[in-house]
Backbone:
């Protein structure tokens, strides 16, 4: 999804001037030619405090997931390896995307190098796209585990997971290369180009390109994931009624709990980014949507903050692992092999 600092253009002839930004460009903070802050000093301080809280929670929460899965053997399943990779993506959103986006949102100026403006936009697009691919891979893993459990060991192997991880990262980077067109004035004309004040780090994105590369992958992926999880839900209900052997009950309960946890993460992601996609659909019919656009983008980013909370509230082994890590009670060799659900 193109949730950079963008203005969506209806066609190739659309241009952005000072009036598009909602305010005249002028020098701010000594030598930055930008729109400048629209918030009062008190509101800026409050906004910074709130966003910094979410940034810290995003970084530390996802770091907690990474450490838990990397350390505790019980958590090192194929599904959780994908979840670890998703946590890495969310970690980088908190570390590389949210802090710089925060400064721009509050001060309406880009205080960093022009090249980093383009790189930040590319990373933003790549990481959110990577999250969508991660969720699709996780849905496939849960589908096989619940709907075809006997063939799960042969269908989802270490090699399969490695291919999915490559798709999540390399595939996302390749798919989002159109964002790099903005680096070239020739290639970017009519597609993705800089606009507005020189130090605003704003981009004009062709609306057709945005739908093709930004929205279609989201809606297509979410539609497929919903179909998969509806199938998982129906099969899981049948299994709960039919399975009687204690060993299979334990196995299927574990798989169902994993599906529930990961399904909650998928649902949170969908709901978090839905306002953004709705706003983009109605964008051509309204003016002065810059504030709303900023708000819905931040709602989307906060999905990266919520995931650790979902793990802790829904999944007991993760909750136990988080507790041990926070108490620094996980350095012994025995702790690595603990049966977390029993502690």
Residues:
């Amino acid at each position: 999804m193109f949730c950079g600092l963008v203005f969506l253009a209806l066609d190739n002839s659309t241009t952005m001037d000072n009036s598009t930004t909602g305010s005249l460009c002028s020098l701010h903070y000594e030598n930055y030619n930008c729109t400048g802050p629209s918030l009062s000093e008190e509101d800026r301080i409050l906004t910074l405090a709130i966003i910094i809280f979410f940034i810290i929670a995003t970084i530390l929460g996802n770091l907690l997931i990474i450490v838990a899965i990397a350390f505790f053997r019980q958590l090192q399943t194929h599904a959780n390896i994908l979840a670890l990779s998703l946590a890495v993506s969310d970690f980088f959103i908190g570390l590389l995307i949210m802090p710089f986006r925060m400064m721009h949102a509050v001060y309406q100026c880009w205080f960093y190098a022009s090249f980093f403006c383009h790189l930040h936009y590319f990373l933003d697009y790549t990481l959110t796209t990577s999250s969508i691919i991660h969720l699709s891979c996780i849905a496939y893993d849960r589908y096989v585990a619940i709907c075809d459990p006997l063939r799960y060991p042969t269908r989802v192997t270490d090699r399969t997971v490695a291919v999915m991880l490559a798709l999540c990262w390399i595939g996302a980077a390749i798919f989002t290369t159109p964002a790099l067109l903005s680096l070239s004035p020739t290639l970017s004309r009519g597609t993705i180009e800089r606009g507005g004040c020189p130090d605003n780090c704003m981009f004009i994105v062709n609306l057709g390109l945005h739908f093709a590369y930004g929205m279609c992958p989201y809606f297509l992926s979410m539609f497929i994931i919903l179909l998969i999880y509806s199938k998982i839900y129906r099969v899981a209900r049948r299994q709960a009624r039919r399975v009687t052997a204690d060993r299979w009950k334990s196995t299927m309960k574990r798989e169902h709990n994993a599906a529930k946890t990961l399904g909650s993460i998928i649902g949170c992601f969908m709901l978090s980014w839905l306002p953004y996609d709705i706003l983009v659909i109605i964008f051509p019919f309204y003016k002065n949507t810059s504030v709303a656009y900023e708000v819905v983008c931040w709602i989307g980013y906060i999905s990266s903050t919520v995931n650790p909370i979902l793990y802790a509230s829904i999944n007991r082994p993760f909750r136990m692992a988080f507790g041990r890590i926070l108490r620094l009670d996980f350095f012994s060799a025995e702790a690595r092999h603990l049966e977390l659900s029993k502690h």
In short: The radius of gyration is 22 Å. The domain at 6-342 is CATH 1.20.1070.10 (Rhopdopsin 7-helix transmembrane proteins). The chain has one domain: 6-342. The first strand starts at residue 6 and ends at 9.
